[in-house]
Amino acid sequence: MFAGSMHVLSMHTSSQASDNLTVFDYSEGCLTMSTTPQSTPSATSPPPTGAVARPALTVVLACLGVFASYVPIGGVAVSLPTIQRGLGASTSDLQWISDFFILPMAALILTFGLIGDLYGRKKAFLAGLALLAVGAAVNLTAHSVAQVWVGQALSGAGGAALLTSSLALISHAYPDFRTRAKAISAWAASLGLGMSLGPLVSGTILEHASWRWIFAPTVVICLIGAVIAVALLEDSRSAHGRAIDVPGQLTAIVAISGLIYGVIEGGTSGWTHGPVLAAFALAVLGLVAFVWVERRSAAPMLSLDLFSSRVFSGAGVVTMLTMFGLVGIVFSLSLFFGNVQHLSALEIAYRFLLVNGLGVVFGPIVGRLVGRIAPGLLLTGGLVLTGIGMLSLNTLDTDTGFAALIAPLAVIGVGFAFVMTPITSIAVSSVPHHLAGMASAGNNTLRQLGGALGPAVLGAVLTSRITAGLPGHLADSGLADADREHVRSAVSDEGLSAAGHLGLAPEPTGRALGAIGDSFADAMHVCMTIAGAGMFAAAVITVLTIGVRRAKPHGGTAVRASGPATASGRVPARAAAATVAAGTGSAAGADGA
Q1: What is the percent of the chain where pLDDT is above 70?
Q2: Residue 11: pLDDT above 60?
Q3: Are 392 and 491 found together in one domain?
Q4: What letters, b where the CB count within 10 A reaches 16 and e where it falls short, cover 228-256?
Q5: What's the domain range around 363?
Q6: Across 21-35, 408-422, 556-570, which has the greatest mean pLDDT?
Q7: Which end of the chain is more exposed for a tag (fewer CB within 10 A), N or C?
Q8: Where are its TM segments located (predicted)?
């Protein structure tokens, strides 16, 4: 399953925690384990929680939570052109509407995982529903872009809490990896369902009401979920060796926020602009500080020893590249469909249903294949297929119809279904069992960071390429010199929103809009090429770091990778396969996910 050998050192915990320094070596189809006692059990260590009486209800609520957290992502994506017109927002403003949701998810996933472990996953789940509902309520009353940013940030924080707590609750409710795999497949399908139905719901609402009402369904779903969870959801926690890592959290926020701000503003204001350079410098300092803090922390938020595993590191890079490409092209296509082809939000939603809907259909199938076919092989095939679909969109033009988009978008949807489940399985199974929760949370953080960088980078590419290509298309349009300069200046100052009020006569306006559309199409081709190349690069990284071979069974009874070794000090490779099967779906902090 994994090529070569893999060494992972377990996390060092405080002197009051019972832990061992464990070295796992995955080679020759077998997992070798050696342990060295580090400390004795603490008398104050909490006892393990008992079995869950209503595991099915736990799964239903977990699915509801992740569904609620992803409905706004898809719903807002297809509504961006309408929001832009309603608030007079620039392209940079729209990028921040997307990133103010994703950034808190990326920055707070690890923290909410720790909060759930320490104080109870039910509390973290309810906090996530509350934050998501409050954020949506803020957007319901928004009359400025800044207010939408605030609402998105609150909702993103709620999404981080729901992602970590929902999967952790499932992992506790189903300790057996086979039943857990089925539950997590439902969880992953709910995530995709939220992405699929969000655009359709928002598109339907925009046909009859103001864009603000697209946030109302989230409030309703969260309130229903909270009422049921308060009364019936069973709690769990895993406080062993965990502690809130405030310095780690603060330095992570500084690094991530500085990077995203620098990319977004660099694309609009110039890469040598003072605030842009300061943001990148702050990002570098934040990253250095994060590494320094985590290396010295008794209970790190993210143990950097995880990255000593070539497999885990490769999975993290692949996750970032995948989400970078997918979220980036959804953002770019949404603007193209709305601003150039002048499609309604509902028409845009139908197009994106090909991507998200097929992911929901094929997700459970891939979940069953993970236990039979090497996850690395499934992942490589999915990445190549997704890359082909993205490059196929280079035929996109201003008059491209729905029929011509069916094949490329469907290929992306099917390919992406073969990416999400295997990549999480690989990340979780590449580390000892007691670090699986941290590994899955770390992988999820990298996924959200890639999702934040996608709109930021490709949005910057769109802006710069449109600005650079517009003069040539304006010259080809036959407009007078004065009109060409007027249009170029307007787009340079206001972005695409200037197309709605160029102030020209009808005939020159039509020519100007045609030139803007052609410039946008050219810029889209560059974005599709970047995203597609990223998928192929991720496939190469998968082959080099993860491998595409399945481990050979070694006989014996399947046990957890962190369980007792055999007399020879070796754990059967089937244990690793069990861990892989348990890791289907997207994973956040889990109790042995």
Answers
A1: 76
A2: no
A3: yes
A4: ebeeebbbbbbbbbbbebebbbebbbbbb
A5: 303-551
A6: 408-422
A7: N
A8: 56-80, 100-119, 124-142, 148-171, 183-201, 213-234, 246-264, 276-293, 314-336, 348-370, 377-396, 402-428, 449-468, 523-546
- Residue 421 and residue 363 in contact, taking contact as beta carbons nearer than 8 Å: yes
Same domain, 400 and 339: yes
Tokens describing residue 497: 């929103």
Q: For residue 276, give both structure tokens.
A: 């842009």
Based on the domain organization, do 227 and 250 belong to the same domain? no
DSSP-derived 3-state class of residue 591 = coil
Structure tokens at 356: 């998200």
Same domain flag for 356 and 500: yes
What Å distances lie between residue 378 and 3, 188, 383, CA to CA?
15, 17, 9
- The C-alpha atoms of residue 292 and residue 587 are separated, in whole angstroms, by 26
Grouping H, G, I as helix, E, B as strand and the rest as coil, residue 339 is: helix
Flag whether pLDDT at 265 surpasses 50.
yes
Residue ranges of alpha helices (H) inside 336-435 are: 345-370, 375-392, 402-429
Lowest mean pLDDT among 102-116, 159-173, 200-214: 102-116
Q: Which of 518, 530, 529 is nearest to 469 (CA)?
A: 518
**Do the domain assignments include residue 557?**
no
**Residues 143 and 260 placed together within one structural domain of the fold:** no
Please give the Cα distance from 305 to 312 (Å, whole number).
Answer: 10
* Final residue in a domain of this structure, among 551, 569, 588: 551
**171, 139, 172: which is closest to 155 by C-alpha?**
139
Q: How far apart are the first and last CA of the chain?
A: 19
**Lateral strand order in the sheet of 570-571:** 7-9, 20-27, 30-37, 570-571
Instruction: Calculate the CA 311 to chain-centre distance.
Output: 19
282 contact partners, CB below 8 Å, separation of at least 6: 254, 258
User: Residue 28 carries which DSSP code?
Assistant: T
Nearest by Cα to 67 from 152, 170, 188, 164: 188
CB 362 within 8 Å of CB 382 = no
The whole-angstrom separation of Cα 130 and Cα 22 is: 39
